[in-house]
Structure of Ribose-phosphate pyrophosphokinase 2:
Amino acid sequence: MRLIVPLPGNEAFAERLATAGGFELGRLETRRFPDGESYVRHLSDMAGRTVDLVCSLARPDPGFLSLLFAADAARDLGAAQVSLVAPYLAYMRQDRRFKPGEAVTSRPFARLLSGAFDRLITVDPHLHRYPDLAALYAIPTATLHAAPVLADWIAAEVPDALIIGPDEESEQWVAAVAARVGAPHIVLRKIRRGDREVEIVLPDLGAWTGRRPVLIDDIASSGRTLIEAARRLQAQGLKPPVCVVVHAVFADNAFEELARISDQVVSTDSVPHPSNAISLAPLLASALREPDAAGPARRRRRSESGAVTTEGPG
């Protein structure tokens, strides 16, 4: 039986994952020595086990060494395989050198995780210039897609929805969500002026004023895209939108600002947040139940709407 071991702050998600998959839930003891160094101790038997460390990597820096130490200790204690279940994968933003001298942090971060784990399972990583995670990671990776679970929540909770994507990059998965919901969709145009400044260009939406707008996005970090889109929608006479996001990072006061101008803001539980309303545990449990026997070179792809892309090193 798989052993699911949560890093601090991930206990609730790990419990849901273990329950959904019928896996054993392990325990990890962590604390700080007086000099600030990390102490890590596994409280479950690792010998011969498939061990999955569960750690959402939003705001990763403070606990990252503990994660690496936990992986190394599991292997040293005899684990047959040590995987990382990271519902949110960090350090995907800096995928090239934008200014002279910058660190391209996505690459060393991937090397560190590849050296510590046998496999990585994540949900909707924020890919820009990388075609897939296999371009970065030297271990097998399983990329899961949250579009179906977002669509099922919208279908159950938001009647007469109009599905809205914030930019052209979202066209494919917004269309997949809308098709599963059985609702119309549109895609806005985003012009980014900086890390915290965007301009949203809308078509004429007068034909949709009777619909409930549902803004969906893969990640809400600064929240500026969703905030600006929500304002522009209401300026055209639409109802306050329901905002549905995969990864609720919500830096600073972004969530409070978005909530003030929205009917509702909900997210998956990939990042612990008060907006969490959509569980990813069944999706991840299903992926973990898949056999890993094909090894590092395995590559499989499924349909865009459904979900699992398993990649190995290229």
